[in-house]
Amino acid sequence: MTQTQLFSTNINDVVQRVAKGKVAVCGDFCLDAYWFIDKEAKELSLETGLPIHKVRRVGYSPGGAGNVAMNLRSLGVAEVRAVGVLGRDMFGDELLRSLSAAGVDTAGFLRAEQWQTLVYAKPYLAGGELNRLDFGAFNAFPEELEEALLAKLETAAKASDMVVINQQIAGLMVTERLIAKINALAVKLPRVLFIADSRDYAQHFTGVMLKINTREAARVLGSPTHPGAVVSLDEAYGYATALSKRIGRPVVLTRGEHGLVTADGDRVFAVPGIQVLGKTDPVGAGDTVVAAIAAALAGGCPLTEAAGFANLAASVTVRKVQSTGTVSAAELLAAGAPDYIYEPELADSPRAARYLPDTEIEVVREKSRRGAVKYAIFDHDGTISTLRQGWEKIMEPMMLEAILGDQAASVPDHVYKKVVTEVKTFIDKTTGIQTLAQMKGLVGLVREHGFVPADKILDEHGYKAIYNEALLEMVRARVRKIERGELGPNDFEIKGARQFLAALHQAGVKLFLASGTDEADVQAEARVMGYADLFTGGIRGAVGDLKVEAKRVVLERIINSGGITGDDLVVVGDGPVELREGSKRGAFCLGIASNELCRYGLDLTKRARLIRAGADIVVPDFSQYKRILPLLGVQA
């Protein structure tokens, strides 16, 4: 049986269970070294005449199995024991120091004379990573140490609820021979759960749970994929099921931004990916997943809860750029309800769309109704009105100028293009949220790139003022044309919007308008357009406070007013924010994939964005509103 599993358990309950667990970690313990080179400190070596790279600051953190152990402790696991081998070198000393400082029991380590501690050294210059330097890649694990290592592993396992086996580098410590003995140990200790995360030898584990990614799974099953290949959800189901039946234990299959699939025999379920705004860094995300799975299972959680918990934990880790990510219990508690990514395969494949007969109404998810909707929340810009059409063309150059400062005309072409791509991606991901929140993100981008002196960087209010002035100049020009009679409100409406609003209003549906635009501005624009009076529930917008998200506040106010279910509410919008908020609350979500320039017709970019946000149906405009109304239980 296959199903989609959203994480609905109280996160605090899982965190409390995790705090009671005991986990042992065995495998390739590494040290991640981050060396940040100062691009301004230029000097030539007197001896060689070559440029000297002066390191401004350094950072060291446990990687590989070490990062798994650090994640376990950060998540609050009561006892974490490390089992592995280190060299008698300064990197081994630093790794021991870091793990011990985090509360990891390091009694399970062996230190070998002929072993280099595994190190991934990552020099950074001007925000970009240079060629990595790897230490320990030519280690050979002494056979005479194998029994001593197994003895330490058995001791640690007997004192634990869960054992994680982590293999990073082929042919070093976790070899086929050692895996056979680990399989035997798992049989010997049936009370203890074992899970393996192995890049190269997953096929040799039996009787041990597997955490594996889609590419590794395809290779193990004899159908290797090329790097970057997209694995469909159905294929992921097949991989996970086949592997689970082969090893006789559950499998956790990671799918990057698309989430997880877990199989236990024939029982398969998927956990959708989570939308993450801003820059991401996948380094360490896999370690977080296996750590969170182990932590939750050690605490007595069922596999479904453990997978949802791990998915949420990884979504926090990937936001930590230029570090080997870990996640804390406090960060998970602060994260709140996740923004899931729905139907990514359908979103990326317009030809897979299903339509109501003789319509342009795409049905994404079938929903049965028990009655007519009573409340409707509408987004404004791009959903009903196009007064602000073209705002992206104002925001993009404004952000570029803010990031590059005086160097806008002089930076190398490849740097300029990189910043342009980052800005476009950021705008696309943040469409629909408060302008002030977008500007706060801009502050982070300006600081990160370092082109503007720290004392010249504005705060989010300063950047918003610059953007708003340019945008409102365009909007005011359009409003003046309406006021002079040169154009009418219908010239700035998505086709059929007014008729749809009027039909809902006449049917007794209470209408609300919720926008990320400043509240005074959206109210004024609704009056100019002539439909403000239809929104008897009120018109809400941003109020200059990042803690107050207008769309979220309106939804919560309606839901909390008493006796309201998802069947009572429809959320209508062309942006992901309102649809995600509606989907979380069980509302019917109507996505408007409008071509704002034409004011009718389908925008494929919007379609993909809205499906991922949780749209139940997607339409290009409201021209077929009479066919939409019955889906809401309203008579046309």
List the helices and strands and how they pair.
Elements: E1 2-4, H1 11-18, E2 22-27, E3 29-37, E4 55-64, H2 65-74, E5 79-87, H3 90-101, E6 105-112, E7 118-125, E8 128-129, E9 133-135, H4 146-158, E10 162-167, H5 176-188, E11 193-198, E12 209-213, H6 214-220, H7 233-247, E13 251-254, E14 259-264, E15 267-272, H8 285-298, H9 303-317, H10 329-335, H11 344-347, E16 362-363, E17 375-378, H12 391-404, H13 413-430, H14 435-449, H15 460-483, H16 497-506, E18 510-518, H17 519-529, E19 538-542, H18 550-560, E20 569-573, H19 576-584, E21 588-592, H20 604-613, E22 617-619, H21 625-628
Parallel strand pairs: 1-15, 2-5, 2-10, 3-7, 5-6, 10-11, 11-12, 12-13, 17-18, 17-20, 18-19, 20-21, 21-22
Antiparallel strand pairs: 3-4, 7-8, 7-9, 13-14, 14-15, 16-22
Helix pairs in contact: 1-8, 2-8, 8-9, 12-13, 12-14, 12-15, 14-15, 19-20
